[in-house]
């Protein structure tokens, strides 16, 4: 049937033209990604990045962030100060123009910044649009100039408001609009601390500081060594191959290349690439140039000095990056990031710049520090041998049908559904609990994989050793994603991977071992939000008669629960004998503390820990990769004293499910 046309229903009145910053307020997600926690803190970053750009350009020496008691935030720098003269294009002051016009700023054309972290130049005006109030002050030659806004609209013209002894610079105060940021408008002190610490590492010689008026907390950061200090910090708690950190800073054409490197005894590669102080987690041309040069230089050095035999194959990139900790920082006038998220640098010329600098100066370093060079090459040679052994081990288990083909691990009780979005894999501690889980589960969507004993500590194991561990191989096969260069997240057979262990020290240890494996060898599984911790009950409170039991999941919840039940009985006029044990006063006939999952029968395990309508699951997320790396290094690495100190300082308060990693 043909569509009926109604020309009167669609005319010019249906077309809305958004003026000024209206578009930002209507679609804030297009500009800052989200209006949740991350979006609120992105506002600070947009303003503070401008101050950092002044420091990168050599005009500012300090960037301060003050979290105000009334909910606002002030960012101050001692740079040149945003210009206050009339702008020729808008007829308004340049300060007002920068804060109210999208794509207005010193990051376009030739007059502002040679290097900046802001690509699109929308930061300040977007923050203004999304703030209920903004106050901008500029100090120029001892005079203070001020302008104020509400939701992006000026409420006063730029005025000279007084004199000051403060140096030139810019101060921006803003209050996130609660009608936009409905989830929260409260700033997280730790987020600001982490942001400013990183900026201090990446801009050597610049002081960053934060002061929280709400609590009185304050911290400041200053690293004369810049990224060299950053690498040393990343290697804290790890045995390094030499005390020296290789560092080079070199101007190439119109760009600057900085690289810092130090190897450690772990099997983990830690590579942090930045372009104009922006982290590029997906790499880009600067990373390609770095990896190419690193592999070539180490192979040439190894051949030249007889550390690789004539018959031996060249070391691969994976071989030479085992145990590598490196920071790459390039600064260039026109960065070409892929997408608004800036996750990858696309400038093709940067590949050659980094390759050239690394090839020359890292080769010098190896020649000048032969003892360290020998250790680095020796570690890479061992990695190559382990890689070949791992491949042989993997091929061996493939031939046995363990990793590929139709055969799943014998101990896996699979679910009948083949839709990953609804399927769940329970990794269960012990055969006893595994048996109860298999009996009590929903076999349409829930698969059970029992693991026997402690899992291999993969923090201290190369791939070849992992491939000879039955529990690890069963886990890899059951998940369907492969491992190493054969890993493919697209093969994941279960939308939820649920670690279900006893609620005791041993159970927490096993859960930590499993999370170490996922974090080190399958970070995409955690990053995709697929890993969960099941929370079994600690106490069962049994009522008289045939009534259902009540279950308590946290020790801190037991006394308040009993107090509530005792109070309810007294309100009803029930006699409470204060001489009885408290669980009896609360109306229960028995109180049982569970030591392990195996103490529950199949029905109890289903009702308390596996029933989607009643269970408690904790999603494992990595909020801060560096912090998580440090925690796993301390908990699972070789440094006993570090681990002992970490555990002792947190023993009374830590809960595995609450670890902020």
Features:
5-stranded mixed beta sheet; flat; disordered N terminus; 36% helix; disordered C terminus; Ribosomal Protein S5, domain 2; Heat Shock Protein 90; 661 residues; alpha+beta; single chain; 19% strand
Description of the molecule:
By secondary structure, the chain is α+β, with helices and mostly antiparallel strands. The protein has three domains: about 20-220, Heat Shock Protein 90 (2-Layer Sandwich), CATH 3.30.565.10; about 225-390, Ribosomal Protein S5, domain 2 (2-Layer Sandwich), CATH 3.30.230.10; about 405-535 and about 620-660, Rossmann fold (3-Layer(aba) Sandwich). Helices cover about 35% and strands about 20% of the residues. The protein has 21 helices and 21 strands. The strands form four sheets. Strands 5-4-3-6-2-1-7-8 form an eight-stranded mixed β-sheet. Helix 8 (about 285-305) runs parallel beside helix 10 (about 350-370). The chain is flat and about 85 Å long. The two termini are about 60 Å apart. Residues about 1-5, about 10-20, about 105-110, about 400-405 and about 655-660 have low confidence and may be disordered.
